[in-house]
Structures are given as C-alpha cells and as structure tokens.
Amino acid sequence: MDRATRNEDVQRAYEIQANAAVAGAARFSAVGTGLAILGHYTWPAFRRQTLPFKCFLVSISTVFGLVIGAENALMAHEAERRQTETALRKEARIDLARRGLVATETEIAKWRAARIAEQQAQSGEGTTS
After folding, report:
1. Nearest-CA neighbor of 89 among 67, 66, 107?
2. Which of 39, 34, 29, 18 is nearest to 61 (CA)?
3. How far is C-alpha 27 from the geometric centre of its chain's CA atoms?
4. What is the pLDDT of residue 126?
5. Half-sphere exposure of 38 (CA within 13 A, CB side)
6. Which domain, by its residues, includes 27?
7. What is this structure's pTM?
8. What is the pLDDT of residues 36-85, one digit of tens each?
9. 99 three-state secondary structure
10. How far is CA 68 from CA 31, 34, 74, 80, 102, in A?
C-alpha cells in the first residue's frame, strides 16, 4: 500500500470516527439530560444536589457516549477493512498459484498493482466509449 492510499485510509477512518463520536455524544447527552430531569422530579435526594454536580453527571454521560460511539465505529471500520484485505489477499494467492508463483508479499504487491492498473484501464475505456 502506497503512502497516498494509506493517508486516504487514515483520513476516512478519522471521518468515520469523528462522525460517530458526535452522534454518540449527542445520543448519550440526551439520555443523561433525561435521566437528570427524571431524577430531579422523582428523587428528593437528587433534587438537593447542586446544579454543577448535575451538569457534571450529564457531561460524564456525554463523554462516555463520545468515546463509546467513536470506538465502536472505528472497530467496525477496521473489521471491514480486515475482511476486505483478507479477501483480496486470498484472491491474489489463488491467482498467483494458478500462474505457478509463490504468493510472497512482493508478488502480492505486484499482483495488486497490476490489478489496480487493469481496473483503471477498464474504467478509462468505459468512460470514453
């Protein structure tokens, strides 16, 4: 994998993680606020707590949602990338074995580069006709 492709993958993972973090923070912030309101109106001991403490509890739930949302999204993205990479490497090993070559890392990299070039050539032909 070349440096540009790796940087694109890192940027895509960052975008996925950031979007999931914002969504998780919003979701858990709403849950924390709802629980704080519910606790305020139903539990006298919670009602006696100070506003900063209640805000602290809501902010804890917000940070929890941010971290959990981002981590779950990143783990799902990494699992998908691993599955894709495993399938691609398996296809490369099979194709190289059919040609009578040993599937070393170098041969797999060459196979991958040839496949990308072939796909780009096909997509170039498809757009010009």
Report:
1. 107
2. 29
3. 18
4. 64
5. 7
6. 3-128
7. 0.76
8. 999 999 999 999 999 999 999 999 999 999 999 999 999 999 999 999 99
9. coil
10. 14, 19, 10, 18, 43
Stated as kind and residue range, the H or E segment containing 83 is helix 51-98
Token pair for 28: 């858990």
pLDDT, residue 4, reads: 85
Cβ–Cβ under 8 Å, residues 92 and 116: no
CB 29 within 8 A of CB 58: yes
Number of domains in the chain: 1
**Rounded CA gap, 114 and 50, in Å?**
66
Look at the alpha carbons of 105, 110, 114, 119 in this order and tell me if their dihedral is positive or negative.
Answer: positive
- Residue type at 96? L
Q: What is the number of residues in the chain? A: 129
128 has a pLDDT exceeding 60: no
Please work out, in degrees rounded to the nearest 5, the angle formed at the alpha carbon of residue 89 by the alpha carbons of 86 and 94: 125
- Mapped onto helix, strand or coil, the DSSP state of residue 50 is coil
Q: Is the pLDDT of residue 129 over 90?
A: no
Side chain identity at 11, as an amino acid letter?
Answer: Q
